[in-house]
Structure formats: C-alpha cells, structure tokens
C-alpha cells in the first residue's frame, strides 16, 4: 500500500495536492525524527556538556546519512538553512575560490531562480555570465555546454532535472566536459535528490529537504575535496564556515532521516508515479483540444508533468482547479506577480498560456489522477468559453492575399492569442495577421501558437502605436 | 509552580541545565505550535491554492505576533534562519543602504561574535570600523559611544545586554545619541528579547528564537520604516527580499507563539530568577576563595551570572561540573578552540581563568541553584589541588628588594598565574617577579591577578627567550 499523502485522512473527502515540486508534504519519518530530536537536539552541538554532546552525536549521524545518500564524504557536506541558501553559498564560494582563474560563470538558461539570481548578482559585480540555451525539450546539449567553457570560466552550474517541466539534464556528460576543461560543476539537485544520487563527476551539489518530504529550514551543500572554495560573508565557526548560524538540528535530523526513507521507497514509487504521469501525458491531449505537453517524455523526473492550454489564462485555470480540489502550479505570466511568463518555458520556446504543472507527491493514489483527468476537460472548456476562445481551428483556407491588423494593446495573456486565432481564417492563405500587443507573454505564445497550428511566424517589428507588432502568415 | 525545564522529568535524577544563554530548552508552547503547524504549514505560502493560503495565514499571524512583541510594524519585520543571519543581513543591508554617507561602522567591543565577524568582513572590504570600549562592568559609556559617531558613520551596533556577563547596555541613551547624529542603531537583542521589548528609539533589531525557548532555525530582523536598507546577496522574492529561501514556517509559528508565551511569564519569572542569581552572586565569593564575580550587579539580565576562579583551568572545571550534573559554559581560553580568552572578558579587563557562566532557563527550581552552590566549592578546590595552586595568599612580606624570573613558556592557562602566585612571597615588598609566558590568556589574567591581590602590574616587555615578559611588583 502506498502511504497516504497530506494529513493522512482517507481518500474520501481528501483534497489531492499536486505541487510536490514546490514543497512535498512532510514524510512520516521526518515527522517522527523531528519529534524525537526536539528533546535530544535543542542544545548547542559545540558545547562539551552532555546536552551538547548528545546534539553533536545527532548532527554527526545526520551528516553521515545525508552524505551517504548524496554520495560524498561527511566532511564534504554541510547543512544550510534552505536549498536557496545552499545554491547561493555554493556559487559565491566556488567563484571566490577560483577568482584567479577568472570571473566566468556558465549556467543553463533553465536553472532555478536561486541560481539565476546568484548569476545576476555576479554579473552586477562585474562577473561574466554565459547562459547555455536549451532545446524544445528543456535539456541542454552537452556539446553546446562544453563550448561555453573557456580559460576564464570559474564555475559552471547545471540542474539535475528541471523544476518546471521535469526534463533531466545530461549531468554526467556535462560533468565530464567540465573536468576536461578544469572547471568545477555545481549541480542543483533540488528536484531529483529524493529519487536517487546524481550521476557523474560533479564538484558541488545543492539540495533542499522540503522537496523530498523533509522539513523546511534545511538545505545541503556538498563541496568535493580539492575544489577551491572560499566562503563569502562574515566568518563563522559552524558547518566548516560555510553556513553561519546555530544549527537547525531537529530539522536536520528529520531531513536526513526522511532522505534515507524516501530513497528506500524510491525505486518502487518512481516506477508507479512514472506510470501515472505517462497516463496524464497520454490522456490530456486526447481529452483537451489545443494542448501542448512539454518536457522530455522519457528522460524526466518520475512525478512531474507540465502542459499548456491555448486560449486559457493560468490564474483562472488554477483557481478553478483549486475549487475542484486540485492544488497545482503554473508558469503562466497571468499567475505570477512579475507579469512575465516562466523563464523556463521561454527558454524552451513553448506555449506559456494556460500552463499547468502537476507534480505528484510520493504516495499519490491512482484515483486522484483519474479524477483530475475527469475534471480537467470541463474546467478548461469553461475558462475558454468565458474568454470567448475559438472553439475549432480556423476556417477552411481561402485563396488570394491580404492582411489584417489586430489591436490587443493593453490586453493580457491569453487574449492576444485568442484574437489572432479568431481572425486567421479571415485572411487568405499567403496573407498575414499582425497582432499589436504589449503583454510579455505574447512574444512566447504567438510563435508557439503558430508552431501548434502549422502557421508561419514571420517575426516581430516595432509598433508605432506602442507595444510590439507580431506578424503571422497564414500557410494552412 | 514554575514549569519544569528540559525533558520534563521530575527533579530527582534530573540534570540541571544552566546554559540558557547558548540555547534554551524548547518551551512547551513552542513544541505545541510546531507540532500543530507541521500539518498546516508545510506548503509554500506564495502559492494561491488552499494549502498555500493556509501557510500564508500562519506566516502572517506569526509576523504580527512577533512584531507586537518587538514593538514594530509587521511589515518592518522579517524572519531569518538564525539570529546570526539576522545580524549579518541587518548590518550588510544597513551599511549598503547608507553607502553614500560613508563606510563607518561603530560597534561596542563586547558584541556577539556575529556582529564582530560582520565588522571584520566590512573592514576587510575597506570599511572603517570603530570599537567602543567598555568599563570593568562590561557596559559602554553613552558619551563615549556618541564620540565615536561622525559624519562618515553609516551604522552603529549595540547589544541590548551582554551574552557572557549579562550586563545591560544603555541602549536608550545610545539610541538618542545616534538619532542626534543621524546614524541608525542596530540592536542585537538576542539575549534580552524574551524578557521584554528593547527600550529606546532603535532603527534595526535582531534576535534569535532558540534563546527564548523557541526552536532553532528562526531569527528575526526588524528594520524601521525610513531606514535606508539595501539587502545584499542574490535577489529573492521572499521576506521582502531580506531573507532568501523557502520560509521555515512551522518553526516560525513556534517561535512567535513561544515569544508571546515567555513574555506572559516574564515579569514573575525574571523576578524569581533575579533572586536566584543574586544568591549565586553573594554566595560564590563566600564559599570559594579567590573568585571574581563579573558584570554589573544590578543593570543585568535576570538569569545570568559569570564568575572567574583563580588557579583553575576552565576545561577541567566544566568537565568536573558536568560530572556533577551541571551544564555551564566558560569564556576561559582553555575551553575554546581558539586558545584565546573571551573577547568580552578581555575588553572588560577581568580575570578569564576558571571562568564559569551560569544562565538559568525559565523554570529553574531553587533547589538546583542550591545544589550548585553545594557542589562548586569542592569542585574548585579539587581542580586547584591537582594543579598545585597556592592554597593561601602569598606569605607575609619581607623587607628589602630583589627580583625573580618565572619561566612559564609553553605552559597553558592557569599555570603562568599559579607560578606567579607561588613565588610572589619569595621577593621582598618593592621587588619584582617577571613571568615569561606565551599563552594568550596571561596578558589578561596576570594584570587581573594583580588587581585581585593588590599587587602592582608594571607592564609587559618583549622576552628574549620568546613569548612575553610580564612584570609584577610586590607592594603588599
């Protein structure tokens, strides 16, 4: 029997939580270890009296367990207050350790924001940052990554698997290229560490406990012996000087115990969830028209799938799914406070509107997935109806030439694409539709619509009336 | 009835823990709140689905409760992963926010290491750091502090009360001087916040939950509206950009709940503990010869007292007290890995050898203190006997002049002082003893011994045989 997720209540009446990639519900082992170590692990592990010695024993044991799961030596691993802090400390320390080599930092374009924000910070301080592009599946090309490394590269960063679309990166091959170039590779393993160790000869690794069912407040940073590393920020005697501040010990104990526990279940549970995700990947395009399932269908995280629905705004879609009891996330611009679509979807060049990420916590019952597939088509159809989306593909093509201009200035995603879809049938094959839009998502979604619809995306040009003019030629 | 500390077992057989200033045992309310919010508060508070909304409500409520206890607006307060991180973020953000004013940072000489390490970091980056000295009680002089402020001062830092000797600082007066000079004042309130809000017109405040019986993993940083503040490090959308990384929510909830709980008990409990500490302050010098009780006897934390015992090494003393069941800490060099005595005792100019800090957790029963007073004299006498310390003050003075040289090179604290005490009776009044020593503690402890014994400390001079020659003239 798979264990129950969430609050442990039985299935009837329980609400399916499908956002494990943001934060997984606390694993029962984490809860148990946390409780046990509240009594034994509250004292300062640096002290020599009995309470301190007990705390030190717990800390040492947690470090050994975590190191074993990571595949490193205990003295190579420190606990940080979060995955984000592990990434920040890892990048700044590795860059400073190789300052004499140069300031080059190479990252993939689809890294987690913690990596990209650290890169922005490095660039603002005068460092040289190179972003390696990804293909339409979200993966970097190892040869392309290798090309970005040069004599001035101090550090390279690559995630083990993408947090938004689930695509696994070719870490082992990139690590080999980095070794050949003499560049340390930092792997952000936040999304994958619960499923297994990261293959390949990496130099630094960061992860986050609440992604595998551990508690919040614990990240980990491994730095292989021999990697030049100079911790930044004020000195501190704790955690080898790499993570200042009093150790969050009960949470660290819970993090290590739950990592061990999820690893013991990983082989069986990943196979089971992989099957559920395959079902979603296959059924969603059959059940919902005008959908693009994104990310690599095979080389991917077992529990995560992302798709985008044309003519739907993400915020309403999430709201309606929440009303139906499903907690999912979205990379659509319409649901974020930044008004720009997810940088991951943008880098992949795929549709961002109506984007839904489903990430199943360990133990998700198959019935939850079936119910999601039952509910989704009606929810999407309802949102489309309210937005006045075109129900069918554009009308049969007419001969001749001509052009139309659609003014969607001031209109938010998905309206510009809806307006385009409505009029494409009004121009003859060979004719063009020009969409004027100032919503950032249009730059991504209009070309993605053309790809999905078999129309030709001509390009963008400045618009005299503000925003950007996106030109589409009807070819089908 | 005061609540029981530690594991909640009854008094018989329970081991008294007297190091609350390092980490207080978890308050029952913290434990209860932590457990409750493990179920409700594991999701991402930035998400809009129900689990996220629940987490957001908990976070907002915790922020309001903490802000009320601090005496600031909720939007002025963020949660950090530790008190150390709150101090680091507060200092770096405030310095950067006032970069145009200058690089001056003024700190007291007895701040917590987190403040002093941030100051070292600032100095290493080219900043100007001024340390304000303290008197023999450990307090700064407000006028002296004011003198250190100038037109290029970007930030001043002063603790609310000292973590090693308990002395309260004149925060309100210093804050007034800072206001007059237009300089923001950051108060490290780690040791006092559980006892009450910090008086005075401070600009920034940092604290640490595990000092008041909250869990590890939570600090707080308050930055008053109007204070120029520029968070350093990579950008992050959480906690107003001032504390990157996923919020440690169950621990935050527990921290806020326990702060409220300890405050409700603070008036009664501080009066009770103050009485117990007064008993220690009065009885220890009566029970143990050659002891110096340090720190202000009145303007002090209610629960903390520190004393130093001549001719005793701190490590053995702590070990023996631990064997008797008492967990205390020490600022003696002999117990730290740095081989230097506590910077606090050094700044105060008081004895560091045989140093013991007793800090009583809330709920400490009077019997524990009585038992400590029963046990201490025998423990100190035993350590002294093993070290061959002089049992009585130096023999009656002889007339005439003369001098002696004592070679204590390579000998660790407290041996140099013991050797001095052994031979002082062998020189006549007016004669000198020169102690050759290379242990860092000697620089503090030989003058302190002279002060306690009524002998004249002449000064130090370089020694041809290595180390330092400390010259003492017999006057009594």
Task: Give me the secondary-structure topology.
2 copies of one chain form a homodimer.
Chain A: H1 28-40, H2 50-70, E1 77-80, H3 83-97, E2 104-108, H4 113-124, E3 128-132, H5 142-148, E4 153-159, H6 171-181, E5 185-188, E6 204-208, E7 219-223, H7 249-287, E8 291-294, E9 304-309, H8 314-323, H9 343-348, E10 355-359, H10 366-387, E11 403-407, H11 415-423, E12 432-437, H12 442-453, E13 456-462, E14 468-473
Parallel strand pairs in A: 2-3, 2-4, 4-5, 5-6, 11-12
Antiparallel strand pairs in A: 1-7, 6-7, 8-9, 9-10, 12-14, 13-14
Question: How would you describe this protein?
Answer:
2 copies of one chain form a homodimer. With 476 residues, chain A is α/β, with parallel strands linked by helices. The first copy, chain A, has 3 domains: 28-261, Aspartate Aminotransferase, domain 2; 273-387, Aspartate Aminotransferase, domain 1, CATH 3.90.1150.10; 403-473, TusA-like domain (Translation Initiation Factor IF3, 2-Layer Sandwich), CATH 3.30.110. Helix content of chain A is 37%, strand content 16%. Chain A has helices at 28-40, 50-70, 83-97, 113-124, 142-148, 171-181, 249-287, 314-323, 343-348, 366-387, 415-423, 442-453, and strands spanning 77-80, 104-108, 128-132, 153-159, 185-188, 204-208, 219-223, 291-294, 304-309, 355-359, 403-407, 432-437, 456-462, 468-473. In chain A, helix 4 links the parallel strand 2 (104-108) and strand 3. The radius of gyration of chain A is 24 Å and the shape is globular. The termini of chain A are far apart. Mean pLDDT of chain A is 92; it is low at 1-13. At the A-B interface, helix 1, helix 2, helix 3, helix 4 and helix 7 of A face helix 1, helix 2, helix 3, helix 4 and helix 7 of B.
């Amino acid at each position: 029997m798979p264990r129950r997720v969430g609050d442990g209540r039985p299935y009837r009446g329980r609400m399916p939580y499908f956002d494990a990639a943001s934060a997984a519900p606390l694993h029962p082992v984490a809860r148990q270890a946390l409780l046990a170590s509240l009594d034994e692990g509250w004292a300062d592990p640096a002290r020599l009296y009995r309470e301190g010695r007990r705390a030190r024993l717990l800390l040492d044991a947690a470090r050994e367990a975590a190191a074993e799961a990571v595949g490193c030596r205990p003295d190579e691993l420190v606990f940080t207050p979060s995955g984000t802090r592990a990434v920040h400390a890892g990048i700044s320390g590795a860059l400073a350790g190789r300052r004499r080599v140069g300031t080059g930092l190479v990252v993939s374009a689809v890294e987690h924001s913690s990596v990209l924000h650290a890169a922005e910070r490095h660039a603002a301080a005068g460092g040289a940052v190179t972003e390696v592009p990804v293909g339409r599946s979200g993966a970097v090309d190892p040869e392309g990554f290798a090309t970005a490394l040069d004599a001035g590269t101090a550090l390279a960063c690559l995630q083990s698997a993408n947090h938004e679309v689930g695509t696994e990166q070719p870490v082992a091959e990139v690590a080999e290229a980095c070794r050949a170039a003499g560049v340390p590779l930092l792997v952000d393993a936040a999304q994958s560490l619960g499923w297994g160790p990261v293959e390949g000869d990496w130099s630094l690794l960061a992860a986050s406990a609440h992604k595998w069912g551990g508690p919040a407040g614990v990240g980990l940073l491994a730095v292989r012996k021999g990697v030049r590393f100079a911790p930044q920020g004020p000195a501190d005697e704790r955690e080898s000087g790499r993570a200042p501040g009093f150790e969050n010990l009960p949470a660290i104990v819970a993090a290590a115990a739950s990592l061990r526990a999820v690893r013991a279940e990983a082989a069986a549970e990943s196979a089971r969830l992989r099957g559920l995700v395959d079902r979603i990947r296959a059924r969603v395009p059959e059940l919902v028209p005008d959908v693009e399932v994104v990310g690599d269908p095979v080389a991917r995280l077992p529990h995560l799938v992302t798709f985008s629905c044309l003519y739907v705004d993400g915020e309403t879609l999430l709201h309606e799914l929440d009303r139906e009891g499903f907690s999912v996330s979205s990379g659509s611009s319409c649901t974020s406070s930044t008004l720009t679509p997810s940088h991951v979807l943008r880098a992949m060049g795929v549709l961002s509107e109506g984007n839904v990420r489903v990430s199943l916590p360990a133990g998700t019952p198959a019935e939850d997935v079936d119910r999601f597939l039952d509910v989704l088509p009606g929810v999407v159809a309802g949102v489309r109806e309210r937005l006045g989306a075109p129900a069918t593909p554009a009308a049969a093509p007419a001969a001749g030439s001509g052009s139309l201009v659609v003014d969607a200035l001031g209109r938010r995603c998905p309206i510009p694409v809806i307006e385009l879809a409505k009029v494409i049938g009004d121009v003859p094959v060979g004719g063009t539709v020009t969409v004027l839009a100032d919503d950032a998502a249009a730059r991504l979604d209009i070309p993605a619509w053309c790809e999905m619809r078999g129309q030709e995306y001509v390009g963008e040009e400045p618009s005299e009336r503000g925003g950007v003019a996106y030109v589409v030629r009807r070819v089908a």
